[in-house]
Write a structure and sequence with these properties.
GO molecular function, one term: kinase activity
Membrane topology: Multi-pass membrane protein
Order of helices and strands: HHHEEHHHHHHEHEEHEEHHEE
Protein name: histidine kinase
CATH class of the largest domain: Mainly Alpha
Helix content: 55-70%
Keywords: ATP-binding, Cell membrane, Kinase, Membrane, Nucleotide-binding, Phosphoprotein, Transferase, Transmembrane, Transmembrane helix, Two-component regulatory system
CATH topology of the largest domain: Arp2/3 complex 21 kDa subunit ARPC3
Number of strands: 9
Distance between the termini: 55 Å
Radius of gyration: 29 Å
Number of domains: 3
Strand content: 5-15%
EC number: 2.7.13.3
């Protein structure tokens, strides 16, 4: 029995040591982890092989190890492709090892993989506590299948050992989940600090511009309006004054954009029917899209509510829809969807335009960065700031010449 304890401790070391190394030296984003050759995927396959190479053999052909940990973790934090690769490695290596228990392993992990594949899409939206609950359920379902299979094969003598062994395995898996979640938290904090630092610079600039420029513009506009009321002016002169006033109003709107960066109106937040706001914005943008010969397709779930500011929500939607329309050639399609998943409201705005490179995606939302020839880069920066102020999040997926997908996420009210 002491030999069993030594092997169990060695199994724990095989799993936790690479994960702690990953925590200390590698900082992959969620998108990077979903690649088949990500550092996490490679580490999990190494853990799997080493774990299966040093198992506990209770009776001839029935071997136990921590293989379930890399399988579940690869699906939950890596995604479908890394999960399937890890599962294939497990089955192939278990076949090479041989023994009567291969059929048990094949049935057990095939059913586990089917469950994980079915839940793969929803896993993307799970928060930390939901992932802990889900991984625990999958793990104990897996354990129950093993114990049930052993019982049907007249191996009841192993059941008490299996229960104790898998309890230790579950504790080890929970440690892995907490380590990876800690990496996620560190990444989120780091990105937030970088974004806040950039926005703080623009906020200070906005306040300065407002004080130094807004008052003179208001004065100039007032005097121009007084001059325009002079009956001695010719019509052409009045037309010139009207153009000047319009340009001053445009300058005023730009200043208001900068002020939105400096101070979003979070004190005016209330419950909003976001489905109605999205439909109103689509109706507003339809005339603009018709000019560009762009079709807007909608799939809007009714009666979805969030906490926010109506004016700022509209500003965000207009900014992103306008960018999508302008990115497409004549005859393109802009898709707008709203739906609810696991207590979260999602707004998807998908265009079929020119798309963006990885470097452009990385810089998106940065103050003064734009991919448009005549853009200032302020619109998207404002949108990111406003959504963040309303406890939301914007994620962007894009490929060159294949279009861009903006996903806005809010907590349900």
């Amino acid at each position: 029995m002491s030999m069993y304890y030594k092997i169990v401790l060695f199994q724990v070391l095989i799993v936790l040591f690479p994960i702690f190394v990953y925590h200390l030296f590698f900082h992959e984003s969620d998108r990077e982890r979903r690649k088949p050759y990500s550092k996490l995927s490679i580490l999990l396959i190494i853990i799997l092989i080493f774990s299966m190479s040093f198992p506990i053999e209770f009776t001839e052909g029935y071997i136990y190890d921590f293989r379930v940990i890399p399988i579940i973790i690869s699906f939950v934090y890596g995604g479908l492709i890394p999960g399937l690769i890890t599962g294939a490695v497990l089955i192939i290596y278990r076949f090479i090892i041989g023994g009567d228990g291969f059929n048990v392993a094949l049935v057990d992990f095939s059913l586990t993989c089917v469950l994980l594949i079915y839940m793969e899409y929803k896993l993307k939206f799970f928060q930390k506590k939901n992932k802990i609950l889900f991984t625990s359920i999958v793990f104990w379902v897996n354990t129950f299948i093993v114990m049930l299979t052993l019982f049907t094969k007249d191996q009841s003598s192993q059941l008490s050992f299996v229960f104790i062994y898998y309890t230790i395995t579950w504790i080890c898996m929970m440690m892995v989940v907490f380590v990876i979640e800690n990496v996620n938290q560190q990444m989120a904090i780091r990105e937030k600090l970088k974004q806040d630092e950039k926005l703080n610079v623009v906020s200070q600039l906005a306040a300065s511009v407002a004080h130094e420029v807004r008052n003179p513009l208001t004065s100039v506009r007032g005097f121009l309006q007084l001059i325009s009321e002079d009956d001695n002016l010719r019509e052409s002169q009045k037309a010139y004054i009207k153009i000047a006033v319009n340009e001053l109003d445009h300058a005023q709107s730009i200043i208001n954009d900068y002020l939105s960066l400096a101070k979003p109106h979070t004190e005016e937040m209330s419950s909003i029917n976001i489905s109605e706001e999205v439909m109103k914005t689509v109706a507003l943008m339809t005339s603009y899209s018709n000019i560009q010969n762009i079709t807007i397709e909608t799939d809007i779930q009714d009666s979805l509510f969030i906490k926010g500011n109506k004016g700022e929500i509209k500003q965000v939607l207009v900014n992103i829809m306008k960018n999508g329309i302008e990115s497409m050639n004549i005859g393109g399609i802009l898709k707008v969807r709203t739906f609810e998943r696991i207590g979260l409201i999602f707004i998807e705005i998908i265009d079929s335009g020119k798309g963006m490179t990885k470097q452009q995606l990385k810089n998106l939302g940065t103050p003064f960065y734009t991919t448009k020839e005549k853009g200032t880069g302020v619109g998207l920066t404002i949108s990111f700031q406003l959504v963040h102020a309303m406890k939301g999040k914007i994620t962007v997926q894009s490929q060159p010449e294949k279009g861009t997908n903006f996903t806005i996420q809010f907590p349900s009210a």
